[in-house]
Design goal:
341 residues; 2% strand; 2 domains; globular; Photosynthetic Reaction Center, subunit C, domain 2; 38% helix; mainly alpha
């Protein structure tokens, strides 16, 4: 019996140790977001909030430049997106973008060299031009999601040339032996990094944030009386919801009423904001990022040959509102207006 007892004791120790490092010790701050008794609350640990606050510091806003004087388009060659800005405004925004995206690399991250700023013979400049157009489009045409807060390049990049929250398709090409070890075609039985480390479908982003498949769990009728919602659809939806929860640092009741997850009239206003956000991400992925795939070098492509794409995490990075909702785009109004080219 001693070996069995030893094994049981070791197992208990492992479980106990796992619980010790899994749960957060008190105190925990609780924010009630719905009626009492419905468990509609968000739990926050002060230590976690402190880390998030440190990671979401708002960058310095460069002093405004004069709008009068020669324009950038008339002064410099090959200025296509910001040509109507004055030279001062243009230079100010370029300096800000450098600190937002490539503070270590400097101007030559997007330009061939200081003596040939007009050249497009570097892929990062072509990408950056399109990203400027994307940012203007997002701020001007998607106020249903970003409201007046808006975004700048810093919202996603945070001082990194490649934002931390980009993703790639994963059809299994990177793990061809996976099926032989019991993994399902949906990627289950792998640790789903995009679904809060669960065993749900491994890639819930491709079908919903690139493609426009229906996001469904609950039906209006009970099986088998006409419902077409399958268990597999439910698993994919749960994987997507877990991704949202992880990206925003919230639980399900941030958007849903625990009494009835299905009912829109009982949900919080954030559910409607999220509905627009899903369509916003699809728009940006399909109309701005996917067309850039041929521009990226092979080292920037995913295992299936696709380019980087956006998800909620790309902007939110663990908080319910990017940068905790601080409006930084007001300091750069040129990023709020779409200029016809």
């Amino acid at each position: 019996m001693r070996p069995v007892f030893s094994i049981a004791l070791a197992a208990a120790g492992l479980v106990g140790g796992g619980l010790l490092f899994t749960f957060e010790r008190p105190p925990v701050d609780i924010v009630q977001r719905g009626y009492r008794g419905l468990a509609m609350e968000q739990n926050y640990h002060p230590a976690t909030l402190a880390k998030l606050a440190a990671a979401n510091q708002v960058p310095f806003v460069f002093p405004a430049a004069q709008a009068n004087g020669p324009t950038a388009g008339a002064t410099y060659k090959n200025v296509q997106v910001l040509k109507d800005l004055s030279v001062g405004q243009f230079t100010r925004l370029m300096a800000a973008i450098t600190t937002w995206v490539a503070p270590q690399q400097g101007c030559t991250y997007c330009h061939v060299d200081a003596n040939n700023l007009s050249s497009d013979n570097i892929y990062t400049k072509v990408v950056a031009r399109r990203m400027l157009q994307m940012t203007q489009h997002l701020n001007a045409d998607w106020t249903s999601h970003v409201a007046a807060t808006g975004v700048t390049c810093y919202t996603c990049h945070r001082g990194n040339p490649v934002p931390a929250g980009v993703w790639y398709n994963d059809t299994g090409a990177s793990d061809p032996r996976g099926l032989a070890f019991g993994r399902t075609p949906s990627g289950q039985n792998r640790v789903a990094l995009k679904a809060a480390y669960s065993s749900l479908p491994y890639d819930p982003l491709t079908p919903f944030l690139e493609q426009s498949n229906e996001i469904r769990v609950q039906a209006t009728t009970a099986l088998p009386n006409g419902s077409v919602i399958s268990t597999k659809q439910t698993e994919w939806t749960y994987a997507l919801m877990m991704n949202f929860s992880q990206a925003l640092g919230v639980n399900c009741t941030y958007c849903h009423n625990s009494r009835s997850f299905f009912a829109w009239d009982a949900s919080t206003p954030q559910r409607a904001t999220a509905w627009y956000g899903i369509r916003l991400v699809r728009d940006l992925n399909n109309n701005y990022l996917k067309p850039l795939t041929p521009v990226f070098p092979a080292t920037r492509l995913g295992p299936d040959g696709d380019g980087p794409k956006l998800a909620c995490e790309t902007c939110h990075q663990g908080v319910y509102k990017p940068l905790f909702g601080v409006n930084i785009v007001n300091g750069y109004p040129e990023l709020k207006t779409v200029v016809q080219q």
